[in-house]
Structure formats: C-alpha cells, structure tokens
From TrEMBL:
SUPFAM superfamilies: GlcG-like (SSF143744). This is UPF0303 protein D9753_22180. Belongs to the UPF0303 family. InterPro entries: PduO/GlcC-like, PduO/GlcC-like_sf, YBR137W-like.
C-alpha cells in the first residue's frame, strides 16, 4: 500500500479519497454501532473544542445527532445537504465535490441539482457495509470542509480498527 501524498494542509486526490472509501467499510452497522461511532466523534470534537454538529443516518432514519457548543442551526442544514449527496452518489460529499473540481468545474455549476438541497462539501461519509453497499451516512458540519471530512475519517479509522 502506498503512503498518501497529502499533508494536513493539502487536498487529497480523488484516488486517495476513493481509497479511503474502499478501506472504511463495516461488516455490519447497528443502532449500537451508530451510538458508539457518534460518541467517538463527540469525544474527538470536544478534545478539539470543535463547534460541530454530528449526525448518523441509516436507511432514512436518524440514529445519532449531537450539537456541540458553538454549532448553529445552519450546521444541521449543511448536514442534510451533504448527506443527500452521499445518498445520491454513494460516495463521500468531499469526493463528489473533488471529482467535479478535477474536471475543471464545480458541483454547483455542473450537477444540475438544487444547491439548497445538495452540497458537495466535505463532511459526509458513506456508511458502507460489506456485500451490501451504502446504507447511510455519518456527517459532521461546523469546520472548514476538509477538516469536517478528516474528522469523520479519523473517527471511522479508530472505530473500525477496534
């Protein structure tokens, strides 16, 4: 396996983001898993004093939600818009936006989707189950988009390594 070419300040390539998604796959995903993953995200966010809202959905049902100090109702609106991108494309919201940028355009200009309903900004990651596919999304909103994405990935890496 090759080492990522990114540093904390650089944007990952579409290939690196796709590799994350291939690697971060669940064997199963239960209500208890959603609670444990969401609690881990809250813990990581609190350690950083991150003003975020956190959401986990599975099959159209919200299984976890937390709004930390400094988050606002706008974060919940962003969560919904980012999650819809994951549900529609079956890929992280950051990867979808990155793919459009790699083509020299933007999601907003080229997707033909309502930007009030969909946002291809980092922070929503697919909950993918082996031999099933994408069944939901884990989403963070409140930081710059790459930081939102990285917080979710960090939590998924810790959670799935247990």
């Amino acid at each position: 396996m090759t080492q990522p070419r990114t540093t904390p300040d650089t944007t990952p390539s579409p290939e690196e983001l796709e590799a994350q998604e291939r690697r971060l796959v669940f064997r199963r995903f239960t209500h208890d898993d959603a609670w444990a993953l969401g609690s881990l995200l809250v813990e990581l966010a609190r350690e950083r004093r991150a003003p975020v809202a956190i959401d986990i959905h599975r099959a159209g049902q919200q299984l976890f939600h937390a709004a930390l100090p400094g988050s606002t109702p706008d974060n919940d609106a962003w969560i919904a818009r980012k999650r819809r991108v994951v549900e529609r494309y079956g890929a992280s919201s950051y990867l979808v936006g990155t793919r459009f940028r790699a083509k020299g355009t933007t999601f907003e200009d080229s997707s033909r989707l309502d930007p009030d309903t969909y946002a291809a900004h980092g922070g929503s990651f697919p909950v993918r189950v082996e031999d099933v596919g994408v069944i939901g999304a884990v989403t963070v909103s409140g930081l710059p988009q790459l930081q939102d994405h990285r917080l979710v990935v960090e939590a998924l890496e810790k959670f799935l390594s247990v």
